[in-house]
Design a protein that fits this description.
The chain has 317 residues and is an alpha/beta fold. It is built from 15 helices and 6 strands. The longest helix is centred in the first third of the chain and has 26 residues.
């Protein structure tokens, strides 16, 4: 960003002034993180992203990130316009600073998506921040072609029709089933949390994967996030299954003496509910020898292929 301030202004003094203001604000934020969290990086970085640069795991992660971008474009084909037209407007990068800025922001964000391996949420939240810049980039490319001397009126009309057709198709073919599932499933969990509260009483210790919204409805219950998203030790010391986005450390979870375990199950291709299909972390918890100290208590169907199960610690006679 500071580079672009200098490129746009050409004023080195102004650039250093912005650098000082930014350093003060961002430095204060980093000091707060160190004081409050004991770490500069967020916990989710270690839990979801933290890895090396080169290796088998890393290349699989990068592959997932590339597919994340491709599926984002599949669900939002109107933004393909930018990539289709970019080669025709690429020569403008040197002469147009604003266009260079837009393309740079998109490139940096997509590089982060590839590095992180994308995200498990279906809403493509990592790509959402690039939408305004993709839109600006597409408009600029269209404008460049429209007003170029080589463009013919017939071509402009055809291209305008293509842009509108792609946008309409994107809205029509959007995967509304997935959107509906997310809405229904989490609303059902909100309703069932009121019932869970009847059994997991205040003062209890519950291992929950992943914590999600349940802690908001269970007051004064101590939660252990068994997949590490909010647990620093699991986030740093846990292990992953392949490129799965969560970390697992069952022995550590059991060492914290939970009284309850809340885990998800998902139907596999054979229609059987399994922990593994919901998350390998839950499978690890269930396969651990300490799991025998818990008994099945209750289950809640959240959707036609997803449910959560409660397990209660067996009290010695």
């Amino acid at each position: 960003m500071l580079i672009f301030i200098y490129i746009f202004s050409g004023n080195l003094k102004l650039t250093f002034k912005h650098l000082g203001i930014y350093s003060l604000l961002f430095g204060s934020f980093l000091l707060f993180r160190i004081y409050y969290f004991g770490d500069i990086l967020p916990n989710t970085y270690y839990a979801k992203i933290g890895h090396n640069i080169i290796g088998y795991y890393e290349f699989r992660t990068y592959k997932n990130g590339i597919f994340y971008i491709l599926f984002f474009l599949k669900s939002n084909p109107q933004f393909l316009v930018f990539f289709l037209l970019l080669p025709f407007a690429f020569s403008k990068l040197k002469s147009d600073k604003k266009f260079l800025f837009v393309v740079s922001i998109i490139s940096v964000q997509f590089a982060f998506i590839i590095f992180s391996g994308g995200d498990w949420m279906v809403q493509y939240r990592f790509a959402v921040v690039s939408i305004p810049f993709l839109s600006l980039g597409a408009v600029y490319c269209i404008s460049t072609l429209t007003f170029s001397k080589v463009s013919k009126p017939a071509f402009i009309k055809l291209f305008t029709l293509l842009v509108f057709s792609v946008s309409i198709a994107g809205l029509y073919f959007a995967d509304r089933t997935v959107i509906k599932k997310e809405t229904v499933m989490w609303n059902n969990l909100k309703k069932e949390s009121a019932d869970i509260y009847k059994y997991i009483l205040p003062g209890s210790i519950a291992a929950n994967g992943s914590s999600g919204i349940i802690p908001y409805y269970l007051e004064d219950v101590k939660f252990i996030d068994l997949v590490g998203l909010t647990n620093k030790h699991i986030a740093k010391e846990g292990f992953r299954h392949g490129t799965w986005f969560e970390r697992s450390l069952p022995d550590y979870v059991y060492s914290l003496n939970p009284e309850w375990i809340i885990m998800w199950k998902k139907k596999n291709a054979d229609g059987v509910y399994t922990f593994r299909d919901a998350s390998p972390c839950y499978f690890d918890m269930a396969e651990n020898k300490n799991f025998s100290g818990f008994e099945f208590f209750k289950e809640y169907d959240l959707y036609d292929d997803v449910k959560i199960e409660l397990y209660k610690k067996i009290k010695p006679n």
